Amino acid sequence: MIFSGTLNSEGHLEFGGADVTLLAESFGTPLYVLDEEAIRRNCRSYVQTFQKQYPNSETVYAGKAFLSKAICRILEQEGLGLDVVSGGELYTALQAGFPASRVVFHGNNKSADELSLALENRVGRIVVDNFYELSLLGSLASRKGVQPVIHLRLTPGVKPSTHTYVQTGQVDSKFGFGVADPHLIPSIRGILAEGRLNLVGVHCHIGSQIFQQESYNVTIRIMMEFLKKLHDQGIILAELNLGGGLGIAYTSDESPPAIAEHVSLLVQGVRREAERLRIPLPRLLDEPGRSIVGPSGIALYRVGGSKEISGKRKYIFVDGSMADNPRVALYGARYEAVLANRAQDPPEETVTVAGKCCESGDILIWDASLPVARPGDLLAVFCTGAYHYAMASNYNRLPRPAVVLVNKGQPELIIRRETYEDLVRNDLIPERLNHGSLPPEGAFPLFLPLDGGG
Ligand SMILES: Cc1ncc(COP(=O)(O)O)c(C=O)c1O
Asked: Which domain holds residue 361?
């Protein structure tokens, strides 16, 4: 059983040093809880291992996993960069005072407005995803009189073993320039000759929740061979960004490598290839998201009713849903959980934990081993720090949960729970709908008169 946290003398789950039953009472449920020490520990694991083994490197946190203004502060203090993929993520970073020079801006369809925001704020690197973006960014940069630092995102043609929705490095992907695209090198020559954009490196990202480290070795070989090809034509690109993707254990049968082990493998791979190909070592960037915040978070739900279908299945219902965690419906994600107010009670049955949305697929855990749950019990689901709150929606007009950051037992709210008022904040009623209740005669002949219209 994955068990993040400890058990206190009252038999309650403690997470980040806080009794989670008290967190639920103070902040309500559903609730996302993040352990600040765990986040910092994971950040340091990346930064320090790179510093020790490959000082010419940067760890860039992938904001898509979870982003808020408070997280930006932690990342800044820990010396990480920040990967953003939209104007909204960039705006969040800027609002938090995160140094724009440490921002890496991704996205396969950045708009002119988003690129302009990046240019005006002098973000550190823009990762250009396709030929259209190259020309759009070139003309925006000329108009603004700036020369942004860019990388090109390449798809190396590697297909790691993970869910197809989170594979991104294969040839048939919406992302990036194919590494074997015959137009790529001429285009690189064009960028360098034109001088509107300062091309310094290449980027790749093969996918997420990756356990097989061999996929990275193959990727590194392909990317370094591409740098060698350029090198032989007199083009030196000094930076290589290997993306993110290290997997985490959501259930006890999963055993990913530790962060330090993963970083060592990347570093050894790059050194080995540089030596084999006789090219200079590049500045190395890595973009972890899930492995930093994923295991550092739990989700708390209050149990309501239940339903038993004799000989088939028992459902227990909680006050969350696919609206705050769509990963089960999207990827068939699996989890483990405990009843946090009775965390010492042994499991007695296997149940399906269902949410409150109007979808049969609104399941949070298909097969949870739990003590017999009673209404009012508190369910804690482990490993929910990444791609949970970040993917939450207001489906069924459910307000998004609050997020609490716990530091050595002290909880602080970092994202407020949405209110019903928030849900209608952007709703508008056109003036004409305020007058009268009937459509003009004959406008909608949907209802026939009772006599049959004859
Ligand atoms: C370009 C890029 N970099 C980094 C990441 C982070 O991946 P992960 O959260 O699996 O580490 C992603 C996630 O999909 C990504 O698309």
From this structure: 6-33+295-422
Same-domain status, 271 and 305 = no
310-357 residue pLDDT tens: 999 999 999 999 999 999 999 999 999 999 999 999 999 999 999 999
Kindly report, residue by residue over 15-43, the tens digit of the pLDDT. Answer: 999 999 999 999 999 999 999 999 999 99
Domain co-membership, 315 together with 191 = no
Query: What is the model's pTM?
Result: 0.94
Compute how many other C-beta atoms are within 10 angstroms of the C-beta atom of residue 378. Answer: 25
CATH code, domain with 61: 3.20.20.10
Residue 198 DSSP SS3: strand
**Amino acid 171: pLDDT:** 79
Task: Clarify whether residues 311 and 225 are in a common domain.
Answer: no
Residue nearest atom 5 in ligand 1 by C-alpha distance: 244
Type of residue at 271? R
Ligand 1 pocket residue status of 269, Cβ below 6 Å? no
- Provide the domain count of the chain: 2
Q: Residue 351 is part of a domain; what is its CATH number?
A: 2.40.37.10
Give distance in angstroms: CA of 203 to centre of ligand 1: 12
Strands (E), 112-210: 125-128, 149-155, 177-178, 198-203
Residue 369, pLDDT > 70, answer yes
Q: In this structure, are 332 and 261 located in the same domain?
A: no
CA–CA distance, 107 with 377 (Å, rounded to integer): 42
Are 247 and 122 contained in the same domain?
Answer: yes
Q: Which of 80, 250, 287, 387 to mutate to test the pocket of ligand 1 (most atoms within 8 A of CB)?
A: 287
Encoded tokens for 325: 């965690």
Is residue 448 in some structural domain? no
Helix (H, G, I), strand (E, B) or coil at 301: strand
Mean pLDDT, residues 62-76? 98
Q: Rg (Cα) of the chain, in Å, rounded?
A: 25
Residue 289 CA to ligand 1 centre (angstroms): 6
Residue 449 covered by a domain: no
Closest CA to 102 of 90, 110, 112, 111: 90
Tell me which of 64, 130, 177 to substitute to probe ligand 1's pocket, judged by most ligand atoms within 8 Å of the beta carbon: 64
Does the annotation count 43 as an active-site position?
Answer: no
d(CA 2, CA 172): 35
Give pLDDT, residue 441: 64
* CA 193 remoteness from chain centre: 36
CA angle 198-199-200, nearest 5°? 110
Distance of alpha carbon 418 from alpha carbon 416, whole angstroms: 6
From 267, 294, 321, the end of a domain falls on 294
